[in-house]
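hey m, so remember when u said the tokens were messed up on ur end? i reran from scratch. heres the input so u can diff it against urs
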Amino acid sequence: MLKLGNLKLDVPFFQAPLSGYSDRAMRVLACKYGAPLTYTGVMLDKIALYRKAFDSLYVRPGEDEGPVGAQILGSDPETMSIAAESFANLGFDLIDLNFACPAPKVLRRFSGGYLLKEPEKAIKILQYVRNSVSCPVTIKLRTGFDNSQESLDKFRQICQGAVTEGVDAIIIHGRHVKKLYRDISNWEIISEVKREFPQATIIGSGDLMDAETVVERLKTSGLDGVIIARGAIGNPWIFRKTRALFGGRPKPEGPGLTEQGEVYLRHYELIAEMLPMRKSVRYFRKFAVGYSKHHPERKKVQVDLISAKTRDELYAAVREWYGVG
């Protein structure tokens, strides 16, 4: 069991917030296949200040989802606290503060991973948010802004401040901001944080692309849990497989072609509830890479799925390659 404030998860892994991916559609399927907690994609704090735009995002957690966390991104403590309160009032079960995003457009706004340069401001944001909501609050970090000792010291300063403030969990991706997603995630640094703050809930992230790796990290890192990010894109089955292996059971077979096709179309239809037809087909293409990896004709399937421009063309491709639809 993993405790995040008043949330009790029955397994110590869950789906990460993924910008541009972990919308309601992806969350519903992750929950169906065993994720005990899912998140929105990262959302700008200022969205909460504009009610009309806020209402149009289809971000409200649905009855067919389990616990859902809202991840927010910004640099002003007061605005972040207002956003956190708004999302909590919408029914989200947890607030996660993004101090990790390495996207250049985010860094130019002095938010996300940039805040690893400003420990005092990061802790002030956490303080303001914790005072504005009663649900659990977590923070997402990378291991520094760059590979300098000064950057590592500031990262540890944020960890120390967050623990002092009673943060419900620190989620750490094992790369610094400048590294983006290059090279291998450094799990030893994350484990060092757990050894330094054994009383805190420390959760690791990075390169968890299959169930075997997830379970191995849980067994060897000494952490309280892990969060599955890119490994869940087009692959909700990773949660079912990880549950089995973590519980000492054989990894389930499959998924077979019929199940793949059915889930693919279910994912698309959930997106189509939110977007107009042509836009929904274009938006869905980015998931095709993940889903097609499970097919024995991966490259051919991927080309056909990405080439579809309408709902009918998408269904025709799924019928051809998966026999459903």
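this time it looks ok to me. The radius of gyration is 20 Å. if urs says something different then somethings off w ur setup not the seq
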